[in-house]
Design brief:
Amino acid ABC transporter membrane protein 1, PAAT family (TC 3.A.1.3.-); single chain; cell membrane; transmembrane transporter activity; two-stranded antiparallel sheet; AA_ABC_transptr_permease_3TM; membrane; alpha+beta
Length: 395
C-alpha cells in the first residue's frame, strides 16, 4: 500500500478565498447585506418624505368608518363599517370568483383538450377554433364584450323577464328566491363538510379495495350521495324549514332573495373561457406526451375510448399536466384584478376607494401585494403537494 507524503496535493492547505464553500457563504452574506441595505434605504427615505409632506402613515385608518357602499358582499357590510371590513369584503369577492373560475376552467379546459383529440373531425375542429379564438384575444377585451352583451341584452328591472314569479332577469342581474335564514343552516354546512370528508375517505377505501380484489367500487356515486344526503338529513331532523325569501320589485329595483350581478357573471365568464383555452392545450399536450402503446394496450383490454381516457391516459398524464396547470390557476387569481375595469367590487376596487379617501397609497398597495402573494403561495403549496402525491415512486 502506497503511503502518501505530507506534502502531497491531497494534504495541501486550501486558502480561504479559494474554498468554494467559504466563498459561497461570503457571496450570499454580501447579497443579503446589500438587499437589506436597499430595503432600509427605501423604507427610511419613504418615511422621511411622507413626514416632510405631512402625509399620515401607518394602518390606524383601518379602524375608521369606510363610508362607501359595496354592491356585492358575501358577509354583512354597510358604509358604517370600517375600512378593514371593506377590504375583507373585497378579498372574499376575489377569492369567490377565483375559486369558481379555477373549478369551471379546469372542467371546461379538460373537456376541450380531450375533444381536440377526438377522431370526430367536426368536434376536433370546433375545439381547435375555440382554443385559437379565446387564447389569442386579450382577456380585458373579452370582459368588456361580455359585460356589454349582458348589460344591454336585457331590459331594466321594471320590464324584467319573469319566470313563474320566481326568477327575474334584468340588466341588474338574475334575481331568485333563497331559503330564509334559519339556525339549522350552519349545521347543514357542517354536514356538507362532513360529507366531503367522508367522500374522500370512501374514495381512498374504494381504490384500496379495487387494488386488492380487482372489483371496482362506485365511489363517485357513493361520495355524491354522502355530500348531498347528509345536509338533507340534517335539514329533515331540524324540522325541514322551508321559509323562502322572494325577490319583489320595489321602486327602481328588486329587494329580497339574492342576485347574480352582471359584473360578476361577465368576470367569471371571461376568466373561465379565456383560461380554459390554455388549460385545454396543457391537457392535450399531456395526453400526447404519453407513449402510444398505452392507448393501444387499453384498446386491447376491451376498454372503450372513454374508459381508456378516464382510467389509463388521464391518470398518467396528470404528472405532466399538474405543473403547468399551477401557473394557470395563479393566472386566474391575478387576472381577477381586471374586475375593476367592469365595476366588480373585488379587492383592488375596495382598496382603490380606500386610497382615494385616505390618501395612504403605500400602505394600501402593500395590502394588495401581501394578499395576492399569500393566495398565490397557498395555491402553489397545494399544487406542489398534490404533484408529489401523484408522482411515480421507485420501488
Amino acid at each position: 500500500m502506497a503511503v502518501e507524503s505530507i506534502g502531497s496535493p491531497q494534504h495541501a492547505k486550501i486558502a480561504p478565498w479559494n474554498d468554494p464553500v467559504i466563498r459561497g457563504w461570503v457571496f450570499q452574506a454580501v447579497v443579503v447585506g446589500l438587499v437589506g441595505f436597499l430595503a432600509w434605504f427605501l423604507v427610511t427615505n419613504t418615511v422621511e418624505n411622507l413626514a416632510r409632506q405631512k402625509i399620515a402613515s401607518g394602518y390606524a385608518y383601518l379602524s375608521h368608518e369606510a363610508g362607501f357602499e359595496i354592491g356585492d358582499s358575501m358577509i354583512s357590510y354597510s358604509p358604517a363599517n370600517t375600512y378593514a371590513r371593506a377590504i375583507l369584503v373585497g378579498m372574499l369577492n376575489t377569492l369567490k370568483v377565483a375559486g369558481l373560475g379555477i373549478i369551471f376552467a379546469t372542467i371546461l379546459g379538460t373537456l376541450i383538450g380531450v375533444g381536440r383529440l377526438s377522431p370526430n373531425w367536426l368536434l376536433a375542429k370546433i375545439c381547435e377554433g375555440y382554443v385559437e379564438a379565446f387564447r389569442n384575444v386579450p382577456l380585458l377585451l373579452w370582459l368588456f364584450l361580455f359585460y356589454k352583451m349582458i348589460s344591454e341584452a336585457f331590459p331594466g328591472p321594471r320590464q324584467a323577464l319573469n319566470v313563474l314569479n320566481a326568477l327575474f332577469l334584468s340588466n341588474r342581474g338574475l334575481y331568485f328566491p333563497v331559503p330564509a335564514a334559519d339556525p339549522i343552516h350552519p349545521w347543514m354546512g357542517l354536514g356538507l363538510l362532513a360529507g366531503i370528508a367522508g367522500a374522500v375517505v370512501l374514495h381512498r377505501w374504494g381504490k384500496q379495495r379495487q387494488a386488492a380484489t380487482g372489483k371496482p367500487f362506485p365511489s363517485i356515486w357513493a361520495g355524491a350521495a354522502l355530500i348531498v344526503g347528509l345536509p338533507i338529513l340534517i335539514w329533515l331532523a331540524g324540522g325541514a324549514p322551508h321559509h323562502m325569501s322572494w325577490p319583489e320589485l320595489k321602486g327602481f329595483n328588486f329587494v329580497g332573495g339574492t342576485v347574480i350581478q352582471p359584473e360578476f357573471t361577465a368576470l367569471l365568464l371571461g376568466l373561465v373561457l379565456y383560461t380554459s383555452a390554455f388549460i385545454a392545450e396543457i391537457v392535450r399536450s399531456g395526453i400526447l406526451a404519453l407513449n402510444k402503446g398505452q392507448s393501444e394496450a387499453a384498446a386491447a383490454l376491451g376498454l372503450s375510448r372513454a374508459q381508456a381516457m378516464r382510467l389509463v391516459l388521464l391518470p398518467q398524464a396528470l404528472r405532466l399536466i399538474v405543473p403547468p396547470m399551477t401557473s394557470q390557476y395563479l393566472n386566474i387569481t391575478k387576472n381577477s384584478s381586471l374586475a375593476i375595469a367592469i365595476g366588480y367590487p373585488d379587492l383592488v376596487a375596495s382598496v382603490n376607494v380606500t386610497i382615494n379617501q385616505t390618501g395612504q397609497a403605500i400602505e394600501n398597495v402593500l395590502i394588495i401585494m401581501v394578499a395576492y402573494l399569500s393566495v398565490s403561495l397557498s395555491i402553489s403549496a397545494f399544487m406542489n403537494w398534490y404533484n408529489k402525491r401523484i408522482a411515480l415512486r421507485e420501488r
